[in-house]
Design goal:
about 290 residues, seven-stranded mixed sheet, 10 helices, globular
Length: about 290
């Protein structure tokens, strides 16, 4: 029988353990929680110290934007900017920009100089720069690589998300390999996609069967990426097995602060900033490439 932890310093309360004392009441799925073995990724001040002077770029679609937003807002806690407290009932989904806009948080970020109009966040006393660049999977690989080089990033995180996946019936190994060659393997990691809650597929765009097919495709694409030159981060199991009872997702694809913070911990591990805890995850099932 597995044991699970909710890290109190994350300021997240697990639904399975409401007496944990965390302050925002977010749903912390057992499959996404790391054992509390390190301050990095659970303590904003310690993480800021480790990242000081670095530039991180996140490139992809809305899933990568959620990760960039979560990482930025987490680090900004060290600057005294608590977006979750400002969000009130929406604290658990604070990475969703619809809340940041409507609640005035984006305006506050701009006013205090943390956010620039070019989608760059300045955190940790403005010693850490986090950049987001919206890009489609294959179409924008070359210019994303150029943007990263121009910004002199210490780490570029790229992801396939869901854009352009529908153009291929299965993971196109040759196309993926060619795309990955755009990037510098010394400074780039590939972030695979997390599993979707198929039952929550928005009926106006998708159906449950297509969401399930998407999960199978995600496994294939990540497996194909492993054959390329980049280090691959696989967050699939962070959300695998979740049901519509999980609270912090509005469509079964976009998840809240808790899941995205675990993904950011994977990014920190890729930077090799210290001995980070390993996620307690079931092995991914084999998939055809």
């Amino acid at each position: 029988m597995r044991s699970w932890w909710c890290v109190r310093a994350l300021a997240l309360a697990c639904a399975v353990s409401p007496a944990s004392g965390c302050e925002y009441g977010c749903d912390c799925p057992a499959s996404s929680v790391f054992a509390p073995l390190s301050d990095l990724g659970s303590n904003a001040t310690a993480t800021c110290a480790a990242l000081s002077g670095r530039t991180l770029m996140f490139a992809g679609d809305s899933l990568m934007r959620d990760l960039w937003t979560t990482a930025s807002l987490f680090l900004l806690r060290a600057d005294g900017f608590d977006a979750q407290a400002m969000a009130g009932a929406h604290a658990c989904m604070i990475c969703a920009w619809e809340h940041l806009e409507r609640l005035g948080i984006r305006h506050a970020l701009l006013h205090r100089g943390f956010l620039r109009e070019d989608q760059t966040m300045l955190a940790c006393g403005k010693r850490v720069k986090l950049i987001f660049r919206y890009g489609r999977l294959f179409s924008d690989g070359a210019w994303i690589s150029e943007a990263a080089a121009g910004s002199k990033v210490d780490l570029l995180v790229v992801s396939h998300g869901i854009l352009q996946m529908s153009e291929f019936p299965r993971a196109p190994l040759g196309v993926i390999r060619a795309w990955l060659k755009h990037f510098d393997a010394r400074t780039t990691v590939y972030m695979g996609a997390h599993a979707r809650i198929a039952e929550q597929a928005p009926p106006e765009h998708f159906n449950e069967a297509r969401w399930e097919q998407g999960n199978e495709k995600i496994r294939g694409w990540t497996a194909a990426a492993r054959r390329g030159p980049l280090r691959v981060l696989d967050p699939y199991n962070l959300t695998a097995g979740l049901t519509p009872a999980y609270r912090d997702s509005y469509d079964g694809l976009h998840f809240g602060y808790s899941v995205n913070l675990q993904k950011f911990r994977m990014v920190l591990g890729a930077l090799q900033l210290g001995a980070l805890p390993s996620p307690v995850l079931a092995p991914s099932p084999p998939s055809a490439s």
